[in-house]
Amino acid sequence: MICSLATDNVKFTIFSLYLREIIKGELDYKDNVVAVINEAKDLTLGNKNYYNIDRYNYPIIVFLSSKVPDFFRTLDTTNIGNNEYSTLLKCIESQRPICVA
Fold first, then answer.
1. Is 7's pLDDT higher than 80?
2. Whose CB among 14, 48, 79, 92 lies 3.0–4.6 Å from 42's, allowing a Cys bridge?
3. Is residue 101 situated within a structural domain?
4. In a domain, 100, yes or no
5. Considering Cα of 79, then 11, then 20, then 96, what sign does the dihedral take?
6. Do residues 57 and 28 lie in contact, with contact meaning Cβ atoms separated by under 8 Å?
7. Residue ranges of the alpha helices (H) in 25-96?
8. pLDDT of 61
């Protein structure tokens, strides 16, 4: 369990870093982030379920889908801007449990 928690924590940290870089204008990680956003939206809308979402980003997708479902219901994934990326970053940073080793 400790290993699993540590791995998930690293995934959240990396995803937060990607979001920060996109907000700054660095688009190298945008495709990775948009893929997670699309999966979270599909999970929220019922187009996908817990068994067929991306396994690597599973904890991030499930977390975002469960914490801000209204955000994903109204999100236009073809036109995501800094406001949307900032909303997701705030969600991850403010609501994710803090783990101290």
1. no
2. 48
3. no
4. no
5. positive
6. no
7. 30-45, 58-67, 69-74, 82-95
8. 97
Q: Domain count for the chain, please give it.
A: 1
Neighbour count for residue 38 (Cβ, 10 Å): 18
In a domain, 21, yes or no: yes
Which residues does 93 contact at the CB level (< 8 Å), separation at least 6? 16
Whole-angstrom distance, CA of residue 44 vs CA of residue 61 = 10
* Domain span holding position 74: 2-95
Percent of the chain that is helix, strand, coil (3-state, to 5): 70, 0, 30
- Please count the helices (runs of H) and the strands (runs of E) in the chain: 5, 0
Q: What is the pLDDT of residue 95?
A: 65
* Lookup: tokens for 18: 């990607």
Residue 10 in any domain: the answer is yes
How many other C-beta atoms are found inside a 10 Å radius of the C-beta of residue 29? 16
Q: How many other C-beta atoms lie within 10 A of the C-beta of residue 18?
A: 19
